[in-house]
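Supplementary Methods. Inverse-folding protocol.

Structures were first reduced to a discrete structure-token string of length 194. This string, shown here, constituted the complete conditioning input.
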């Protein structure tokens, strides 16, 4: 219940080690898509949200490459946070923008999906842009835009994910567009509701 109140009204997270909460500037709206930031752009330390302790924890995963090229986190869907205590129940996302504070909730729109295989598991990372213009450092509208006008960005993101855990540890499966991202999000949401 506390998390739902934090989603609706925001919570003070000045002491993130002892009591971290999601923060956002406006109430949750099911017709819009939001991301909870776990690891900010430029960080070399991987962090994940601990649902049971309700705080950000550094993981044992050491980045063996350059720092994160975007803000890594997960997509917030409905009120499933209260019911789901497993980070794996949420789609991972990379928000392409300047560094965003961990636990901030930002409105996003997907522009594509990068699929990778790591430790024999397939994972989809939804690549997003912040919806708020003041947070946008790239003016990418959709996957076609990413492929044509911003191809070096797509290449850098792919190159980072293929090397962040060390050489030959992650296999790139491929890219899909924002429509595929929408299908993934819908599938994830229906799994969480059931």
């Amino acid at each position: 219940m506390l998390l739902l109140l934090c989603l609706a009204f925001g919570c003070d997270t000045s002491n993130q080690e002892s009591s971290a909460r999601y923060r956002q500037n406006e109430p949750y709206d099911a017709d819009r898509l939001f991301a909870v930031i776990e690891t900010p752009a430029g960080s070399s330390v991987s962090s994940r949200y601990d649902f049971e302790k309700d705080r950000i924890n550094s993981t044992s995963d050491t980045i063996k490459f350059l720092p994160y090229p975007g803000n890594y986190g997960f997509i917030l869907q409905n009120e499933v946070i209260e019911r789901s205590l497993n980070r794996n129940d949420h789609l991972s996302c990379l928000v392409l923008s300047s560094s965003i504070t961990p636990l901030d909730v930002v409105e996003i729109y997907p522009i594509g999906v990068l699929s990778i295989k790591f430790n024999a598991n397939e994972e989809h990372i939804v690549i997003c842009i912040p919806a708020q213009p003041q947070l946008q450092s790239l003016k990418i509208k959709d996957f076609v835009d990413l492929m044509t006008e911003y191809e070096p960005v797509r290449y850098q993101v792919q190159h980072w994910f293929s090397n962040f855990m060390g050489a030959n540890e992650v296999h790139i499966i491929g890219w899909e567009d924002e429509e595929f991202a929408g299908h993934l999000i819908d599938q994830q949401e229906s799994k969480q509701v059931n």
